[in-house]
Specification:
Number of strands: 7
Radius of gyration: 15 Å
Strand content: 35-45%
Shape: globular
Mean pLDDT: 94
Low-confidence stretches: none
Helix content: 25-40%
């Protein structure tokens, strides 16, 4: 059993541009201050099976993370799963993109977090923090895409 969080934000950019920015995967440090480093394998366009390896700092702890793209439907859907086994992981997550009513693109980000080992005890705290930060996270994505 896990815990979920989500956020929705309207971005003043065309859907293809927003999809490209998010699907690249390596832009994460531009909107997620916890991501210290990220690399992609294999090189080239992101596709189902692409793996992103990152170094992340959460609650003072630095961990290695590995995510795999499980679904990629341009320009509306990106899905991933975390392959690494840290105390708390994003078992699955994604972006849903659609045209925003006033123009631009509406993006919904969502993640399902899971705890492993002692991480099961930390999950309520981690989930609460993620839900609390979700609106600001959406705004950071908006700012990064619009600045690109």
């Amino acid at each position: 059993m896990g815990t979920q969080f989500e956020a929705t934000v309207d971005i003043d950019r065309p859907i293809d541009e927003v999809f490209g920015f998010l699907a690249a995967g390596t832009n994460d440090p531009r909107f997620s201050p916890r991501v210290q480093r990220i690399e992609k394998e294999p090189e080239g366009p992101t596709a189902v099976g692409t793996v992103f390896r990152s170094t992340v700092k959460d609650a003072g702890m630095t961990t290695a993370r590995e995510f795999e793209i499980t679904e990629l439907v341009a320009p509306s859907r990106i899905r991933w799963r975390e392959r690494s086994r840290n105390l708390v992981t994003a078992a699955e997550g994604g972006y849903d993109l659609e045209p925003a009513p006033g123009g631009g693109t509406r993006v919904r980000i969502h993640n399902r977090l899971e705890g492993h080992g002692i991480g099961k005890l930390l999950l309520p705290l981690a989930g609460g923090a993620a839900r609390k930060d979700a609106p600001a996270f959406g705004q950071r994505i908006k700012a990064a895409v619009e600045a690109s």
